[in-house]
Request: fold
Amino acid sequence: MYIDELKFDENGLIPAIVQDYKTKEVLMMAYMNRESLEKSLETKETYFFSRSRQCLWHKGETSGNIQHIKSIKYDCDGDTILIEVEADGPACHTGNRSCFYRSILNLSDDESESILDNLYRRIEGRKENPVEGSYTNYLFSKGLNKILKKIGEENTEILIASKEGDKEEIIYEIADYIYHLLVLMVEKEIGLKDVYDELSRRYYKTNEFQEQHKMRKETK
Reply:
């Protein structure tokens, strides 16, 4: 990378977009000056320039959520940097994995999947950066047995609600169950993608079996 080709603004700054190098999820946006960029290149960890404090800051220096740089790219105009990283923890100070966790508009078809991902990341963030008074942190502090007990209780609540036939109550209890299930997944370091991949494997395996069965019947 040739720093001299970059176009820093009148304050000597350039916007830097940070992206997960595996998932390509945008994690955050901050500003760099020449010194912070050189420091980032030297250490292979992200350094930025704080406009409010007017000084360099090392991402993860206090939180431990260091970002290990995998690549640094710049756009066609040379006025924006894209940094791909492997992050040790959430990028956002709120505990969310990404700073971009709120939506103004979402026209995608996977809104239900998106809320699961967001909730998973929030739970993951709570474990890595505990928040006083958080119920999620209470569960983690009590350990696996408490989490499993709550999953059992919520499962029973679903059965009771289903027996009584109240649809709204069933939905409420299912949501409770899914939340506690996600807490268990974070505790056991199981990602949503692991579950998606397993469901996908079963789905396509089932379709393949059905197609083969159909072909056998048609050839008889």
